[in-house]
Design goal:
Length: 259
Amino acid sequence: MEAFYALAIEDYRQLAAARDWAADLRRCATGGVVRLLDVACGSGKFPSALVASGLAAQPTVRVDLLDPSAFSLTEARSVLARPFVPAAEHQAFLQDFDAPGTYDVAWAMHALYALPPAELRAGVARMAAALRPGGFGVVAQAGAGSHYLRFYEAYRAAFAPDATPYTDAEGVADALRGCGADVGVQVLRYRTRSRDRAVVEGFLQRCAFDGAVSLDRMESTGPLAEYLAAGRTDDGAWSFDHEVHVLTWTRVDDRMRTS
C-alpha cells in the first residue's frame, strides 16, 4: 500500500484542487453541520488531502463511512481530522446500503472500480437515493482511456481473462443519468511517474489487486508488456497518464440536477 500511494496520492491531490470543496460543504450544511456519506471509503485519503490543502475547520462534517472491508473502515476512521468527525460505520456493499434521504453530501472517490457492471445501476441508485432533497453527490472515477482502466484490461488479457472488468467513469455517468441525475462532468488530466522499480511494482500490483504477479512478469507477458513499454521514458522512468472524471449532481425532490 505504501508503494501504491507513493504514486496514487496524486489522484487525491488533483481532486482536492479540482473545485471549491469548502463552498460545496458550506452550501450543504444544516445548522453548521454536514452529514456526509463516504462511499467505499478505503484508507480515507480524500478527506486527508482536503485537510492538507487547507480546508477550513467549519462547517463540521460528520462522516458516515461505508465499505465492505472492516480494515478500511478502521483505517479511514483513524485518519479523519477536523472538520471531518467520524460518525457511523457501515460494513456493507454500496448496492446493499439503504438509507434514503439521510445525507447532505455523498461522495465516492476512486471507489467504484470493482462494482460489477450488472450491479452498477443498483449501486449508484442507492447512493443517489441516500441524499436529501438539495443534497450534493460526487463520484470521481477514471475514464476508459485512463491508466487504471487501460492497465487493468491489459492485465486481464495477460493473467486473468475471467476477471470482472473495472467500471469506468463513462459507465458510472450513464448509470447516474439512468437514475434521473443531471450529471456535471469535469475532466482532470495529469501524469504520474517513477524510476523506482519497487514503487512501480507495488503500485501496479495494487492496481490489479494481485500481489503475486511481479513487475518482471508484467514486462514480459503479452499486451501488458506492450502497455508498460509504451509508457517508459528516455530517462528510464515508468509513466502513467490519468484521465479522471469528476461527476456531480444535486438532488431536487425526486429529480436531480447538475452541480
